[in-house]
Design a protein that fits this description.
By secondary structure, this protein is an alpha+beta fold. Helix content is 44%, strand content 23%. It has helices at residues 5-16, 50-63, 80-91, 100-113, and strands at 23-30, 33-38, 41-47, 73-78. It has a 4-stranded antiparallel beta sheet. The longest helix is centred in the middle third of the chain and has 14 residues, at 50-63.
Length: 117
């Protein structure tokens, strides 16, 4: 049984409640899309659609990793600030031009928080 985005968001809020410099996360790609996990539980997901693949790519970029191949996973350890931005990016409706400025800003902030600048 898959976890709904609403249930995943409840868990994600709990993870983000306490600011931390390192939160272990895993980006897992399956047949239905890409899921972001913490301790085996779903934080958010991007479905296997054109927009979902865009979201997964940008979410991975915010985390500082590449989207894994189908059936593979990649792990990262990021701050709660970076994690918040990655989860938020996955929730953007990238079909709307008005969200592109928000996306660009979130990616810049995530890179800065990861120590990229």
């Amino acid at each position: 049984m898959t976890v709904s985005r609403a249930k995943a968001w409840e868990y994600a809020e709990g993870v983000l409640d306490t600011p931390r410099s390192r939160v272990p996360v895993t980006l897992r790609r399956g047949k239905s899309g890409v899921a972001l996990l913490h301790r085996g539980r779903v934080l958010t997901r991007c479905y296997d659609s054109k927009v979902g693949r865009w979201g997964a790519r940008f979410m991975a970029q915010a985390l500082g990793v590449e989207v894994p191949e189908e059936g593979e996973s990649v792990s990262a350890s990021v701050s709660t600030g970076v994690l918040f931005r990655a989860i938020s990016i996955a929730s953007l409706d990238l079909r709307r031009a008005s969200t592109h400025a928000i996306l660009e800003r979130m990616l810049e902030e995530a890179e800065f928080q990861r120590g990229g600048r």
